[in-house]
């Protein structure tokens, strides 16, 4: 299982690295680099924020005291096709400092889109032509996750999820962890507490994803250059479920929020690399995301084995599947 998990992590980490590395080329456009980086990385930030809220539970029912489950699964987040690019003329400072080259579109692909040719802009002050990222077509995000739960006293359950840290040199490293609490409130609702197959619970959790990617970009320093990303999220849900011996279904409704940060660490030439104007940690982009969240799923049980799937609709929809054991 460990070898399989590592293989999944390395494969999808490679896709993330390839997609995100191109943001460093925006340092050639200092007047618009913050707005351009924000627009370019926005789909990945949205998908990471959506992915972070998945794979927390596969039932509204809480474990008995010291009962537990462990599972391994895959979770994915996708984005709409209408949001795979950004308008250059809408970037703050673009019209004052740049213009699109004749024959080049004024809409550039973001990390989720892809064009055959590099969008080219021209500096109005120097006349230099600058190629912007042409996108990587990374319009979905899929990563493995290990999750589990342990029954505590008073109809309460501790939930955990993680992906072990993997460090592969130039591919960077990627890891995640999270902690949640689920508490049954069925006992407090008159009538519902007399229906054995029904479950009602509240759930809250904190989770985080971090990654570091090594870069190579012109500078006068031999120190390392990295693109660091950090995603932190909180979620709260009201869970309603139906459970019979071999099948269960659940629905959750609540609110999720996340903060995403991308930061270039190290020394870099900013602007025309021939001018050798160097800055340390020149670019940081932050996103504050929040939304009402709905999810629903099903689980099949055969003895101690369980197989489950869940879906959360929206612009950045998420889907997860997995299998494991429960006692």
Number of strands: 17
Q: Radius of gyration in whole Å, from Cα?
A: 23 Å
Fraction of residues in helices?
A: 10-25%
Low-confidence residue ranges: none
The strand line-up of the biggest sheet is 1-7-8-9-10-11-12-15-16-17
Q: Quickly give the structural class.
A: mainly beta
Number of domains: 1
Oligomer: single chain
Succession of helices and strands: HHEEHEEEEEEEEEEEEEEE
- Number of helix segments? 3
Strand content: over 45%
Global geometry:
elongated
Cα(first) to Cα(last) distance is 20 Å
* Largest sheet data: 10 strands, antiparallel, barrel
Mean pLDDT: 88
Pick out its properties.
single chain; mainly beta; 3-stranded antiparallel sheet; elongated
Describe, in plain words, how this protein is organized in 3D.
This protein is mainly β and 327 residues long. It is 13% helix and 50% strand. The strands form four sheets. Strands 1-7-8-9-10-11-12-15-16-17 form a ten-stranded antiparallel β-barrel. It has a three-stranded antiparallel β-sheet with strand order 3-5-6. The chain has a two-stranded antiparallel ribbon with strand order 2-4. It starts with a helix and ends with a strand.
Short description:
The chain is mainly beta and 327 residues long. Helices cover 13% and strands 50% of the residues. The chain has helices at residues 2-21, 33-52, 94-97; strands at 68-78, 85-87, 98-100, 107-109, 120-123, 129-131, 140-152, 156-167, 173-184, 198-215, 225-244, 247-265, 267-269, 278-280, 283-302, 305-312, 318-326.
